[in-house]
Amino acid sequence: MRVLASAALSFSAAIFAANYIFKLSALPVIAGVLLLCGLLLIIPRRRWLRGIVAGLIAAGLGLFWFYGHYMLTSAPAHAADGTEGEIHGRVLDYPVVYDDYCRLRIKAECEGIDGLEALVYDSSMILAEAEAGDTVSFYGSIRSADVKYGEEYDYYNSRDIYLVINTRSNVELTDGGNYIPAMPAKLNHAVAGMINQIFPADTRAFMRSLMLGDKTELYQDEGLYLAMTRSGFMHTVAVSGMHIAFLVGLLQLLLGANRRSSFICIVLVWLFVFTTGSTHSAVRAGVMQTILLLAPILRRENDPPTSLSFALALILLVNPYAAASVGLQLSFAAMAGIMCFSQRLNEAFTAKLPQTWAGNILRSVLGTVASSLAVMVFTVPLIAVHFGYIQLLSPITNVLALWAVSFCFCGGYIACAIGALIPAVGTAAAWLVSWLARCIFLVCRLVSSVPFAIIYISSAAFIAWLIVSYMLFGIWAMARGRARRFLIPTAISALLLAVCFGLTRRGYQADKGVFAALDVGQGQCLSVTAGDSTVVIDCGNTNSLENAGDIAAEYLSARGIDSIDLLLLTHLHADHANGVVRLMETVKVDKIIMPIDPEDDDGLLNSVLDSAEKQASDVLFLSKDISFSVGDISLRVFAPPEIGDINERCISAVVSIEDYDMLVTGDSPKSVERGLVGNYDLSGIELYIAGHHGSRYSSCGELLKELGGETAIISVGYNTYGHPTYETLERLDVYGYNIYRTDLNGTIEIRIG
User: pTM of the entire structure?
Assistant: First the structure.
């Protein structure tokens, strides 16, 4: 078994190295060297060399396999990138339908890309009626899936998707009959339909996520999604070993624990894995559970490290790009943490507890804490690297709500089974299960509302704190001391964290103020802070992998800011306002100013007003110019013109800290800019936020001359408009501006000393 573990780990390590370290062209050479070394070491026939030989050969094969997989998948996808043509394929899943387009997954069956899976976007909405197994044909444009918004993007490849195709014309959909690869999707769709039928509206999205791994609608409930994320409870809706354990426990409760039930469990476990989309965490759990169930039947001892290693190698054998999947990395890291530390932590916490009913309850609670902490050992660094934050309160959430998840999961399937036979009884059962789900929601919202439930690792101080904390807990682990000594590193770590926040906050308050243009991609989000006062102007972006609200919340929270005095929205275009709801789910906003009778082509107004009502934020629809102060921040806010399109009806503002001024004009065109010059004194303004992301229709010469030419910031990202245009850059240069761009310089801060 240990030789198998050595080979599996070496194969997997080689795949990870191919993903993150080695150049593609070097893989065959390195693989050849490893294989040669492995073969040479076979000759001595020493027993202790078996693991090394197996490791070298497996590593060489891993590199060869990654290279071969690239040639079979990514290479033809890159060759097809940018082309157009007739596309034929099979629908693998049911479409996701949006307001004006739908998205579905197909397996291509046409020359050049035959056998490759693709995401198809259809604006004609014809494919919105597709069912898994149907055949499709259309004329479309093709691009490789490993680039998105101008950046390398490995998410799709890690899910075995290599193409993104947009339909252009001639979209046809025909019944494909009983297409076997689509059967799991059909079963998933049937269960999802039953969930929608019997569960209340407020719990359907959560139950579909929990039971089927379908988080599409859960993401749309931004309040619940953020609460679960901030409280560290999103892992409960990522189908994983926990769900498999619930399923096997339920089956063995019904069928008993014997050889026949073990085989039935294995079949049903894999049916569940395939039905829920064969996610990496589900496959890992399925492999490990299968080995666990087979071990006594085959009279072999189950070795968890070997089964974990084998599961990883098996997943990477099917798709080497899965190594880049965050879900895979977190799933295996969590399991490794449980194997290495859960039992030891549990013993340390519960060794002195009495054998009484109170002691047993406390033992159960501390067992959950021990498991949660064990999971965090390896997952916290990964979450910090991939997402830039850590969730410190997840053990508390697990203690308060994890017990309810098993009842929700098992109860959900029981309710669906009953509902298929007796709909009224199934609905009643679902109603009972929903109360457990609501308890989970309540716990997540309460925990997430705790200040700094998420710690953003966005500076050297916080990175140092994380490293020191790991060192402290490592010393505690090696000391083999009493459980209460665990409080010592915990207290020191908490004290150091408070020091980090204090120093960061003090560093910002040492300045008179800070003007910042956040790097939100193609969009705009500006932050102005002075003392304890904060003003945010706009919060939106498009063509970005991150929501502007998340970026803004991270920026503010990392600086110890948990409330915004004023949120000024120049207008309601998505690239200026689509992050507002997400921001307000994380940070308290006292007052919002937006144009009177705002154009709402992007459908944002109601959601912004709903968020304002939830927070009891004051909302002012600006109809006339106003001047006021927010602490040490002064504002002159200019009402938009009464006529014109949405860009012409932008709010403009001069924001000042002492004698340093910033002008913001939103997407105002030159005609509005000339009106500002004619009606207001704008001379001597030090900082100009270039209008309309550097569009040639803004930043007119009259305005640039009036301002005096000091510093200009262009908030811009990947776009197809040509922003910032050559004409605008040339005008700014001619008038003597120092130009900074968020797409080149990242988040730009100007500190007023």
Answer: 0.89
Contact 149, 237 (CB under 8 A): no
DSSP type of residue 115: T
- Which stretch of 4-8, 652-656, 723-727 has the lowest confidence by average pLDDT? 4-8
Confidence label for 645 from pLDDT (cuts 50, 70 and 90): low
Q: How far is CA 657 from CA 510, 687, 751, in A?
A: 14, 12, 10
Cβ(562)–Cβ(536) below 8 Å: no
What whole-number distance in Å separates Cα of residue 436 and Cα of residue 104?
Answer: 33
User: Nearest-CA neighbor of 553 among 646, 461, 631, 451?
Assistant: 451
Q: Which of 721, 684, 444, 399 lies closest to 575 in space, CA to CA?
A: 721
Whether 620 contacts 593, CB under 8 Å: yes
> Would you say 350 and 49 are in contact if contact means Cβ atoms under 8 Å apart?
no
Rounded CA separation 239/275 (Å): 11
CA distance 34 to 52: 11
Indicate the average pLDDT of the chain.
90
Close Cβ partners of 23 (under 8 Å, ≥ 6 residues apart): none
DSSP state for residue 299 in the 8-state scheme: T
The conformation of residue 339, written as its DSSP 8-state character, comes to I
Separation between Cα atoms, residue 11 and residue 577, nearest integer Å: 47
Tokens representing residue 234 in the block? 């999103």
Q: How far is CA 337 from the centre of its chain?
A: 22
CA distance 267 to 283: 13
- pLDDT at 468 > cutoff 60: yes
Residue identified by tokens 């426990």 is 249
Question: How far, in Å, CA of 629 to CA of 637, rounded?
Answer: 11
Q: Can you say how many angstroms the Cα of residue 549 is from the centroid of all Cα atoms in its chain?
A: 13
pLDDT value, residue 362: 85
Report the pLDDT value the prediction gives residue 480, as an integer from 0 to 100: 58
CB 260 within 8 A of CB 293: no
Cβ-contact 331, 284 below 8 angstroms: yes
Report the candidate in 462, 352, 435, 405 with the shortest Cα–Cα distance to residue 238: 405
- Res. 649: pLDDT tops 90: no
For tokens 């997430």, the residue is 448
Q: Which pLDDT does position 48 carry in this prediction?
A: 58
Place of tokens 């197809």: 720
Structure tokens at 363: 């033992």
Phi, psi dihedral angles at 163 (to 5 degrees): -135, 150
Residue with tokens 């409330």: 563
Phi first, then psi: what are they for 138, rounded to 5°?
A: -170, 165
Strands 652-657 and 147-148: unpaired
Q: Catalogue the long-range contacts made by 64-70 (C-beta closer than 8 Å, 24 or more residues apart).
A: 64/27, 64/28, 64/31, 65/15, 65/317, 65/320, 66/14, 66/15, 66/18, 66/19, 66/27, 66/320, 67/18, 67/24, 67/27, 67/28, 67/31, 69/319, 69/320, 69/321, 70/24
Q: Residue 354's CB: how many other CB atoms inside 10 A?
A: 10
Collect all residues with Cβ–Cβ distance below 8 Å to 75 and sequence separation of at least 6: none
Quick check: 369 pLDDT over 80? Answer: yes
**Can you tell me the distance from the alpha carbon of 104 to that of 96, in angstroms, rounded to the nearest whole number?**
6
Of residues 209, 205, 183, 187, the one with CA closest to residue 196: 205
Phi, psi of 440 (to 5 degrees): -65, -45
CB 567 within 8 A of CB 536: yes
Cα–Cα distance measured from residue 486 to residue 477, given in angstroms and rounded to the nearest whole number: 9
